[in-house]
Structure formats: C-alpha cells, structure tokens
TrEMBL record, chain A:
<keyword id="KW-0274">FAD</keyword>
<dbReference type="GO" id="GO:0005886">
    <property type="term" value="C:plasma membrane"/>
</dbReference>
<dbReference type="Pfam" id="PF00441">
    <property type="entry name" value="Acyl-CoA_dh_1"/>
</dbReference>
<keyword id="KW-0456">Lyase</keyword>
<feature type="domain" description="Acyl-CoA dehydrogenase/oxidase C-terminal">
    <location>
        <begin position="227"/>
        <end position="372"/>
    </location>
</feature>
<dbReference type="GO" id="GO:0016627">
    <property type="term" value="F:oxidoreductase activity, acting on the CH-CH group of donors"/>
</dbReference>
<keyword id="KW-0560">Oxidoreductase</keyword>
<dbReference type="InterPro" id="IPR052161">
    <property type="entry name" value="Mycobact_Acyl-CoA_DH"/>
</dbReference>
<dbReference type="InterPro" id="IPR046373">
    <property type="entry name" value="Acyl-CoA_Oxase/DH_mid-dom_sf"/>
</dbReference>
Automatic annotation (TrEMBL), chain B:
<keyword id="KW-0274">FAD</keyword>
<dbReference type="GO" id="GO:0050660">
    <property type="term" value="F:flavin adenine dinucleotide binding"/>
</dbReference>
<keyword id="KW-0560">Oxidoreductase</keyword>
<dbReference type="InterPro" id="IPR009100">
    <property type="entry name" value="AcylCoA_DH/oxidase_NM_dom_sf"/>
</dbReference>
<comment type="similarity">
    <text>Belongs to the acyl-CoA dehydrogenase family.</text>
</comment>
<dbReference type="InterPro" id="IPR009075">
    <property type="entry name" value="AcylCo_DH/oxidase_C"/>
</dbReference>
<keyword id="KW-0223">Dioxygenase</keyword>
<dbReference type="GO" id="GO:0003995">
    <property type="term" value="F:acyl-CoA dehydrogenase activity"/>
</dbReference>
<protein>
    <submittedName>
        <fullName>Biphenyl-23-diol 12-dioxygenase 1 protein</fullName>
        <ecNumber>1.13.11.39</ecNumber>
    </submittedName>
</protein>
Length: 385, 373
C-alpha cells in the first residue's frame, strides 16, 4: 500500500469523534484554536507512527523518500488534518538534532517529538535582533554544570503551549555578531522563565515574550560547540524549506477553492477584474507547485538552487495577496465579524505575517540579490542597538 | 545534471543552439541589421538553423523525419531563440503550424507537410481567422492582422469558422487569386508582421487540411502558444543578465549602482518573476502532462500568460535600471522590451488568457468575453 493510501485509511478512521471539530483548524493564524485537543491529536498521530517518517530507521523513522513524504503531506492536508502542534519539533528541531546532535541528545529528545509528548518553540528573535538576528544579547554562562541564561526573547510562537525552547544566546562576553553564540535546549517549565502572551493583529495571542532570569539548563543541552550557535541556527532555518511546502500548498488550494466558491455564489465571479485576480491566484499556485518540484528534484547536496531562493518570498507574497483577494471577493460584508473571525478574515489578517517571519520580503530580496545574483553586499553599520 | 525536468539530450541541444545563436547575434549587431533591412526575418540564418543544424524538426515525430524530442525539446529552442531574439519563423512554422497539422490533418498531409517542416523546406504562417474572415458561398473575405511570418511564408494556413461553427483549416499559396500579403513595420521590429487580406478568395483554391470543432481547435492553439512562455523566459533572462552586467559596472555616487538596495531589490524582483515564469514554462512542457489534454491546455494557458506578464515587467525594469542607455536605439535592450510587449498582446492576449483561465477553473460568468463565445 502506498503511503498515501495508508494515511488515507488512518485519517478516515481517526479524524473522527471529538477530533472532527479540529478538522481544517489550527493552521497558521489559527494556532490558538483548541490547544488541548490538538495536543491530544499530536499524541495520537505520534502513537500511530506518523511523526518522523523521514528519520533513519534506528530512530524509529521509515527513511521515507522525499516524493513519498510529499504525498504524505498532501494527503494530510487533503483530509483537512489539524494544524500540527508538534510541527516546530518535527520540522525544525528534529532534523537539527539528527544532523548536529550527540547520540545522547538523539536518544533524549527524538522520542518526545516522535510521540507527540514534547512540544517545541523557537527562541531566536529579540527586541533588538529581528532581521539582524546576529545582534542577540541574551546571555548564557556555564556555572556548576549548568547553563545559566539571562535575557529576553520576543515573538516566540506558541511558547505558552510548549515544553521546550531552543535558544540562541551569547556565551562569550564581549563577542559581537555571529561569534561567540550557543544553541541551547531549555525546558520552559521552570522558575527562571516567564512567558507573557502578546496579542496580535487578530486580537488572539499566539506569540509571546519570553523572559529569562537565571534560567537553567544542563551543560549537555547544547547543540554543537560554544561559538557554533550561528552555524546551527542557520542550518535549522535551512530545514524550513522542503517537502512540507507541498502540504502547505494543499491548504492554499483549499483556501482558493473557498474563494472560488464564494465568488460563484455571490456573483462576483462575473466581475472581470476579480475574475482575472482569481485566475492569477490559481496560476500562481500552480507555479508555486512546480517551483517546489523543481526545487525538490534539483540539488540534493543541500546547496540552494535558484528556485530555492525564490520559494519563501513567492509563497509569502502570493498568500498575502490571496488574503486581500478573499476580502475583496466578499465585498463590504467582509467587514462584519459574526462570533469570531471567519476563515477568510483570518486569512486576510494572518497572511500579513507571512511576509515578515522567517525572513522578511526585504531580507529575502537582499539574500537573492547577494547570493543568487552575486550583487555587492549590504554595508553594515555599528550594531550597538 | 540537467535541470528538472530536462534530460541529458536536451542539454546537449541547448549547448549547441546557444553557441550557434551567439555567433548569429554577433554581440547584438545582427538585430540592428534584421530590424532595419530584414523586416524581422533573416532568411540565410533560418536556412542554416532549420536545415543545416536540423533544428526545425526538434519536436516533430520521427516518422516524419523529426527528432521527436517532445515539448521539452522545443522549450529549449524557444528559450534560446528568446535569449537572442533569433529572427526566424520557428514558432510560426515548427510549433504553431506543426501542432495544428499534427492534430487535424490527414495522414497524407501530415506526411507531406510535417516532413517539409522537419527538413526546413517550408515556412508556414498559421493564422487564426475566427471572427475576422467571413465565409459565404465558398468565398472568403476579410483581413487578418497582425499575421506573423506571412511575408515570407510558402504556405498560409488559416482557420476559418463556418456557419455550423466548425473550424475549417485551409492552406493557401501566397499567389492565390484574391489573397494579398502586405508587410508592415511593427513596433517589435525583430519579428516579421504583415496584413493578410482575402478578397473573394475561393475556398476551393486552397488545400483542405482538416476540419474540427471550436474546443479542440482552441486547445491545440493554446498548447502551441504555451511555447511562447519559453521565449519569454529566454528574453527575460537576457534582460536580467544585461542589467546585472550593467549594475556591476556602472558607478555613481562613488559606488557601483548594484550596491544600492533599490537596485538590488529590483533585480531580485526580476529574478523572482523570471524563475517563476521558468517554472510555469517547464511545467507546461513536462512529460507528466502527456496524455491529459485538458491539463496540458491549462498549463499552457498559465505558462503563456504568466511568462509574458513576467517578461514585460522584467524588460521594463531592465530599461529603468539602465538609465539613459536603456532608452538608446543602439543598445539592444529595447528589442527585448518590444518583444515582451508583443508577446503579451499577441497569440491570445494575457487579458483574454486570464479570462479563459477563469472559465477553466470554474468561475461562472454570464458574459464570457472571449473570442465571441
Ligand atoms: C506571526 C509571527 C510569528 C513569529 N514567530 C517567531 C518565533 O516563533 N520565534 C522567533 O524567534 N521569531 C518569531 N517571529 C519573529 C520574526 O522572525 C521577526 O519578526 C522577523 O525576523 C523580523 O524582525 P523584526 O520584527 O525585528 O523587524 P525588523 O528587523 O526591525 O524589520 C522592520 C522592517 O525593516 C526592514 N529591514 C530590516 N533590515 C533590513 C535590511 N537589511 N534591508 C532592508 N530592509 C530591512 C524589514 O524588512 C521590515 O520591513 C515571528 C514573527 C511573526 C510576525
């Protein structure tokens, strides 16, 4: 049986009962919906062996090929599978541990991700280190077999729902920029950590400020060496691209289908300018898909191919435009909030974040012009912020 | 490894064509000559390319003497001819006419015409006469303009809609009584254009090639038009290459202009448009779609519209990033800008194309504006 058929059957049997209510829910922009239930779903999903399919067999994976993994993700999205509470762990933390972690770290951390019992969040950004990530100020000192951490992270998605955070911190006093950083794994439930939700554009709170006041983690909970934090942090971001983008495109397709349905029902499908925008959105999504296939079939050595460079800014901009289109297709009624934000209103508001996180559109353009096109590097000022 | 979804043999063709075309264009000098004296056609070069290099038959079936390299084969050629604006009827004859003949002609006509196309022994201008030509009492009247590559065509293949809404395909020699071909200067001077008039031309004076229905004809036409996406990608790549060369070399305010972020970001946007157009173009030619005509039709629609919009944007930005030099006749960038504009307006304009795509994805409409449907 193909992986697609296998998952199809399992979803039919398991995305039922109480889990019905989280079908289609919990994706980006909807991550505050039913956290308890989504956590339960993550565990059920893990128990069934669906997490870590691409991992080597010795860590409980299935060594799944890229194309099979693509099919798997598409099938999940086709069923309206709930937004995965464990996605940061599975897609970012696990590959980083597999690539750079010690044997002991693999044994300690992979099972929690695989079983859906330990959820992760990403502690990179700080008040003065956003696009200029290397300007981080959070400090880590090694004291009596523990790292002691002081500082502040911000915009940390789902910290309030997570068990662990990976933290980029400065370990060597007096270092600047990319030097002297460490990549630490830190348990959130401890007296030295204070998590304060930040309300976002939608009024809901999915990201947080995370304050560290002599927070502790064991000396062994470092990935790589002292001074290698930057390298590890960048490698982790590299895992963000890849097969999951095709699953994401299935969700985009579902959103576009809703827009088409709405336009047909309310008659705006007759408006030539909206017709054209919808047709362009459809074309853009197809282009995105083939671009991903080019990317996945291209360089296997981890280097970024041409199409790899455009992938983030392309989908982010496309999705943001889709949000605007969704509202325009509804028209003036799109202003009205019934009980909670409708899926289209959420799409409109949350897609504003797509062009900001994981490298803003401006940063993407810098990267494209400097790395893909070899243009002169941006001059840097003093980073004393 | 050749870029997905191409194979090794496509890459070999690409290298050969690239080299040949680079000699042909002679650093841009040839374009000036062709634009001025040739009305967008370089016969000697075409014969060299089509016959000696054997490129005319790239996508034609082996049984007719072609290389049978599928849509990907012609994608390679169109991309490289777009990069140099090779002024020759490859698209008209080897793509558009060949596709129509392949789809609708009798076996005898195929054997005759496709073999001639493959060997480079015939130039065919394929024209869509729907809505432009009237057919009454077996007499054709009306004018088709622009008619690409009609000036030097050995055969003018025209699609006519009859009273029963069938599409009748007929081939005319340019000497047919009542038929006149008048060349005109086009804003895109590296592509040959003309006005073709039918003044009481007898249907029976032409060679009956085939008959089909509106849907089948439209699909075949759009699939052929899809090949223009590759031309747009090639042309767009050239514009970006020229812009990057210039941005690295031109100094203002004591810096290379390529170090200014607004210039860098513009180049990044050109690159994003270009690479996504490339994805659309390769997708439309991908063998994955073989056997599924509807999917092929849709992919071709997307590719043509998407890539021609991208090319126009890239070419416009390229002129802007060049300053005054980009506005200069001597500097060949303007030819690309002009080709970009004509690719966007001809062979189903992108406006009509996106409306057709809207139909295709099930957007209901009570006024379908396209092609008199
Ligand atoms: C919904 C959401 C979830 C997030 N989740 C997380 C998370 O889980 N963990 C985490 O660590 N972070 C997270 N982030 C933070 C995100 O990574 C940062 O917001 C992002 O990197 C931008 O940094 P900033 O907000 O400080 O903006 P700034 O860097 O201050 O940027 C402000 C503006 O200046 C522009 N700019 C900055 N530098 C340049 C330059 N060199 N050239 C041109 N323009 C420039 C930017 O493009 C932007 O338009 C999240 C953000 C959002 C919106």
């Amino acid at each position: 049986m193909s992986i697609r058929e296998e998952l199809n059957q399992w979803m039919l049997e398991n995305l039922t009962g109480e889990f019905e209510q989280i079908r289609w829910r919990g994706g980006p922009g909807d991550e505050d919906s039913s956290p308890e239930l989504r956590r339960a779903w993550e565990q059920k999903f893990g128990e069934a062996g669906w997490i870590g399919l691409q991992w080597p067999k010795e860590y409980g994976g299935r060594d799944l090929s890229l194309m099979d993994f693509v099919e798997f993700n598409e099938e999940y999205a086709r069923h309206g599978g709930p937004g995965r509470a464990g996605h940061i762990g599975e897609t970012l933390m696990a590959p980083t541990i597999l690539a750079y972690g010690t044997q002991a770290q693999k044994e300690r951390f992979l099972p929690g991700i695989k079983n859906g019992t330990e959820l992760w969040c990403q502690g990179y950004s700080e008040p003065n280190a956003g696009s200029d990530l290397s300007n981080i100020k959070t400090k880590a000192r090694l004291v009596d077999g523990h790292w002691v951490i002081d500082g502040q992270k911000i915009w940390t998605s789902l910290a309030h729902e997570s068990d662990w955070i990976f933290v980029l911190a400065r370990a060597e006093e007096g270092t600047k920029g990319r030097d002297g950083l460490v990549f630490l794994l830190v348990e959130l439930d401890q007296p030295g950590i204070d998590i304060r939700p930040i309300h976002q554009i939608s009024g809901t709170a999915e990201f947080n400020e995370v304050y560290f006041t002599e927070a502790k983690t064991e000396a062994d909970n470092i990935i790589g060496e002292v001074g290698e934090g930057w390298k590890i942090a960048m490698a982790l971001l590299g895992f963000e691209r890849g097969a999951s983008t095709l699953g994401q495109q299935m969700m985009f397709q579902n959103e576009l289908n809703l827009i088409i349905k709405t336009a047909n029902e309310n008659g705006r499908a007759n408006d030539p300018s909206l017709r054209r925008r919808i047709a362009e959105a459809h074309a853009g999504l197809k282009v995105m898909r083939f671009n991903a296939l080019r990317m996945l079939n291209g360089t296997q050595d981890g280097s970024t191919s041409k199409e790899g460079y455009i992938s983030k800014i392309f989908w982010a901009t496309w999705h943001r435009d889709l949000g605007e289109l969704a509202m325009d297709v509804i028209g003036a009624d799109a202003e009205i909030i019934e009980d909670e934000l409708s899926p289209m209103q959420k799409l409109f508001l949350f897609s504003r974040a797509d062009t900001i996180y994981a490298g803003t559109n401006q940063i993407q353009r810098n990267i494209i012009s400097e790395r893909a096109l070899g243009m002169p590097k941006e001059p840097r000022g003093n980073t004393n912020g | 490894m050749p870029p997905f979804p191409f194979q090794e043999d496509h890459e070999m063709i690409r290298e050969a064509v690239k080299g040949w075309l680079s000699d042909w264009e002679d650093g841009g000098k040839t374009l000036h000559r062709v634009a001025k004296d040739g009305h967008g056609f370089d016969r000697a070069a075409w014969e060299g390319f089509a016959r000696d290099q054997g490129m005319a038959g790239i996508s034609i079936a082996e049984q007719y003497g072609g290389a049978d390299m599928g849509l990907l084969g012609r994608t390679v050629i169109m991309e490289e001819t777009g990069y140099t604006l090779f002024s020759a009827p490859f698209f008209s004859t080897c793509v558009l006419a060949a596709d129509i003949i392949e789809a609708f002609a009798s076996e005898d006509d195929k054997a005759d015409l496709l073999s001639k196309i493959a060997s480079g022994d015939i130039i065919i201008s394929a024209l869509d006469g729907r809505g432009k030509l009237s057919l009454e009492d077996n007499k054709l009247n009306g004018t088709i303009s622009p008619a690409t590559d009609a000036v030097h065509a050995d055969l003018i293949l025209v699609a006519i809609q009859n009273k029963d809404n069938d599409i009748v395909l007929t081939g005319y020699s340019p000497n047919t009584a009542g038929l006149s071909v008048t060349p005109y200067a086009s804003i895109d001077p590296t592509r040959s254009q003309a006005k073709v008039s039918f003044d009481n031309v007898s249907l029976s004076d032409g060679q009956a090639i085939g008959k089909t229905d509106e849907t089948a004809f439209s699909q075949t036409l759009q699939i052929a038009h899809g090949a223009l996406a590759a031309e747009c990608v090639g042309g767009g790549q050239r514009c970006l290459d020229m812009t990057l060369d210039y941005a690295n070399q031109r100094v203002q305010f004591g810096r290379q202009i390529g170090s200014f972020q607004s210039v860098k970001h513009k180049c990044a946007d050109m690159f994003i448009a270009l690479e996504s157009a490339r994805s659309a173009s390769y997708f439309a030619a991908s063998p994955d779609l073989d056997g599924d005509r509807t999917a092929k039709f849709e992919a071709a629609l997307i590719a043509k519209n998407y890539a021609s919009e991208a090319f126009f944007k890239i070419a416009g930005d390229a002129i802007q990033m060049h300053g005054g030099i980009g506005f200069t006749w001597e500097y060949p960038l303007h030819y690309f800008f002009k080709r970009a504009r004509s690719n966007r307006a001809l062979f189903t304009s992108s406006e009509d194309g996106f409306q057709m795509l809207a139909d295709q994805i099930g957007l209901k409409s009570n006024t379908s504006a396209i092609m008199g449907k």
